[in-house]
Each structure stands twice: as structure tokens, then as C-alpha cells.
Amino acid sequence: MTTTDLQAIPRNITGIIKSVDSDNKMWLEQTKPKLEHPVGYFIRGTELVDHLKSLEGQIVNLTIGPDRIKTDRADDGNFASYWWSIRSEVTEAPPKPDDPTDDPIDDPTPDNQPKNPPQNPPNDPPPNPAALGACHNHAVDFITAGILPLPEGRELVGWVRELRDRFYRDINQAPLMPLHYCYQHDEERRQGKNGGWGHLLPKETEDDEDSYCIEGREGWRVFDAGQ
Ligand SMILES: [Zn+2]
Description:
By secondary structure, the chain is α+β, with helices and mostly antiparallel strands. The chain folds into three domains: about 5-105, CATH 2.40.50; about 130-170, no CATH class; about 180-225, no CATH class. It has helices at about 45-55, 130-145, 155-170, and strands spanning about 10-20, 25-30, 40-45, 60-70, 80-90, 190, 195-200, 210-215. Strand 1 (about 10-20) and strand 2 (about 25-30) form a beta hairpin. The longest helix is centred in the C-terminal third of the chain and has 17 residues, at about 155-170. Zinc ion binds near residues 182, 187 and 213.
């Protein structure tokens, strides 16, 4: 069974690196979720071992993933049912021990299972709180401006959350498209002989000549690509 088959999803932990052993095991004074005693994790990957060695004594944010199910346990997604190892150091999120906005549901608890397992799929990276907050604000702005009003039969909080999540996933986390990309037709444009940028439009009838969507002339069918 490979790691990707396991039901448990990767989690983030914070702590101070006490030591990195020669057998690629790291001892961590874990501060989030808080543990009474140092905890040892196997480190996956020699590059990561060297990197974490260089950070001994420092506070780090780490992503851990499940390696295998413990004896006599089921593949049930609960933290305590697996052996975990360190997969990466999460550098973009500095530790915030007293962050009041921290959602306790997201806190992994190594010795006890969380009350509600996180709902994001295994490959979803941890959300960026600042970007999420900005998406929330935009959602509220669009609702109050009447651009994306509350649909009939929906309650406000659910609508705000839906818009926030859609803005975050479809806009904030969307890959950057190349220059001259056509967002209307979701197609890349190519440069013509005269320097303009366009892409071929689907024909309306079989007999139509080739027509193009040219940058700066969106909404028009341009039949001479040389234009
Ligand atoms: Zn287009």
C-alpha cells in the first residue's frame, strides 16, 4: 500500500528542532499542537535531512504525512492510527503561537484524534490565511455592490463562504496565464505576421472561413488573420 492510498491527510506542525540523528530521525520540541515531551519523526528525503540539520535549534513549520498504518489499527484517517514522517518544511507560514484566528479544528492532535477531520482533499495545500481574508472581503464587496447578490432561497453566511472559496480556488490560487491569453474563450493566443495576437474561433457553420478572436477586438469575428 502506498502513502497516497492511505486515508489520513498531511498535517502541519510547529516546533523547535532539538536534533537530527544520523538515522534521519528528527527530535522536535513540538509547540503546535503542544506536546509535553520531545517527539521523533523520520525525515523523508536526504535533501530535507540536510536542510533540517541546518535549522537545528530553530522554530520550524513542518508538513508531516502518513507512512503506514500501525499494527492493530485501521486505515480510518485518525492521527493515532499511523506512523508519520516529515515531508517538507513550510517556510511561507511563520509561527504564530497566539494567533486568535487559528481554527482549532485544523490543529492536529497526535495522541488523540481530531473532533472533525479536515475536509480538504489530500493534495490541497494549507490555505494562506491572508489570501483567504482578502477573498472574504471581496465576496462581501461584490454582494453589497449588487454584482453577486444573495440568490433567492440562500442564506447569507453560506453565500459569502461559497464566494470566498470560489474566489480563493478559482482566482487566487489559479495559475498565472501567459501574456495575451484570451480569458473569454479560455485559449492561448498566437502572434500573427503583423504582430497582433489571436486565436482561431470555432466555425458557426461548415462553410465559414476561418475567423479569429484578436486581442483588443474581443467579441468580434475577424476573418483576415493578417489584420
Ligand atoms: Zn478569444
